[in-house]
Write a structure and sequence with these properties.
The chain is built from eleven helices and nine strands. The radius of gyration is 20 Å and the shape is globular. Pfam families: HTH_18.
Length: 292
């Protein structure tokens, strides 16, 4: 997979008013061209009016009504317009932009951007007016001469994210801060940091005991905590994350199976093939042929 795209690479030579940490645009500013499958090195929130298809990790999502789209640097995605008209706004920003006033803020812990979060939130007719107004306010302030405009933009962005979190069921974002929750959170964060993989930086942490050692807990303790909080064991989390990455590499890169096997930490392609077939019921080669 290619290295993550930067903001300037994402837009090529058509980037107006470029800022390195925050930008906002109307969708009309750019012709609706397909966005190729890749990771980007920035966060993106889009308010979309129109029909399109989002390929996010290994999921295909048809978007056929007003929606908020959330993408982040850790998950590769592609986007393809279906309807001719694509209206709305999108904002691009970095974690550093939000950390300017809160150095302890970690956006990957947000319910909107953490691993497994839903990338699409459909906006009801009652919500559309207010959400649209937030984007319009950000667009206006971004192009103003106000000396403190980025502080104001940061506030607007936080309001937007809180409005999106309200759209989730309460159980999705209220956290019980007990010991099991803390251990599970640390494990999932550590697991997430191992990806994306590449040929020069293959996956090295593949066993439950490796994670337990880094977290300074016994592997049985880690298993119990994960089972209590997530319903899955350490091995199930590891296998699921490796399968997710493997599918993305098989379908969206031109790496051969041996290269994919190496990048995921398998010494021999046969071991990887056996693992993949056991987890998915299909072989890597068959999956690639089906998506050719």
């Amino acid at each position: 997979m290619k290295k993550p795209e930067s903001v300037s690479e994402y837009f090529g030579d058509k980037l107006p008013n470029a800022g390195s940490r925050f930008n906002i645009y109307e969708c009309d500013d750019f012709r609706a061209k397909p966005v190729p499958y890749n990771r980007r090195d920035f966060y993106k929130i889009t308010l979309q009016f129109g029909t399109s298809r989002l390929e996010y990790a290994d999921k295909g999502i048809l978007i056929d009504k007003p929606a908020l789209l959330f993408t982040n640097p850790r998950i590769p995605y592609s986007w393809e317009p279906i309807s001719e008209e694509q209206k709305g706004y999108f904002v691009l920003f970095t974690e550093e932009f939000l950390q300017d006033t809160n150095s302890d803020f970690a956006i990957e812990n947000s319910p909107l951007f953490r691993l497994g979060a839903d990338p699409v939130y459909y906006v009801s007719p009652e919500q559309v007016t207010y959400i649209l107004q937030i984007f319009q306010n950000m667009h206006k302030e971004f192009h103003s001469d106000y000396v403190h405009k980025f502080e104001l933009l940061r506030n607007h962005l936080n309001v937007l994210m809180h409005e999106a979190i309200k759209m989730q069921p309460v159980t999705n974002y209220l956290e019980n801060q007990n010991a099991s929750t803390r251990i599970s959170s640390l494990f999932l964060e550590l697991l997430d940091r191992q990806f994306p993989v590449d040929l020069q930086r293959p996956l090295t942490l593949r066993a439950p005991n490796q994670y337990a050692e880094l977290l300074s807990v016994h592997v049985n303790h880690l298993n119990r905590a994960l089972k209590e909080v997530t319903g899955k064991t350490t091995t199930e989390h590891l296998n699921g994350r490796i399968v997710l990455e493997a599918k993305a590499l098989i379908v969206h890169t031109d790496w051969n199976i041996a290269e994919i096997s190496h990048s995921l930490g398998y010494e021999y392609p046969t071991y990887f093939n056996n693992f993949f077939k056991k987890q998915t019921g299909s072989s890597p080669t068959l999956l690639r042929e089906q998506n050719a």
